[in-house]
Amino acid sequence: MPVVEIFMLRGRTPAEIQMITDTLHDALVEAYEVPRGDRFQIVHQLEPHEFVFDAHFMGPRSEKFLLVRVTGGRDRPVLTKRKLYSLIADNVERHGAVARSDVFVIVDNVQPTDFSVSNGHPFDQASLGLPPTTHA
Q1: Rounded distance, CA 35 to CA 125, Å?
Q2: Which SUPFAM superfamilies does the UniProt record give (predicted)?
Q3: Superfamily of domain 3-128
């Protein structure tokens, strides 16, 4: 159930964006063992005044800088997260999208009761086939 938000400066082509989203999803499938069909991604293309980042913090950054935020349903071990970070950087660099130094990844985790994926059911109820919670 990861939801991935990708922040970038405006100006990429649809093909570049597709390649970036595909390579990010490939990393999630491999590192987090996410089912291939479990794909929810939001691309934010921003103007320079809307996407402010330090060009030198912990490495050089260019106008191709990507900030990737992964919101996942369960926490993963540190080694699994490290694998994800590395695969994301490797994948986008290998496909020519950005340099590894231009990739910033944030992983957030939420509890199954913190989101609903369908029909107003909390995720934990929907995944177990339980009826939705009703409130008076």
Answers
A1: 20
A2: Tautomerase/MIF
A3: Macrophage Migration Inhibitory Factor (3.30.429.10)
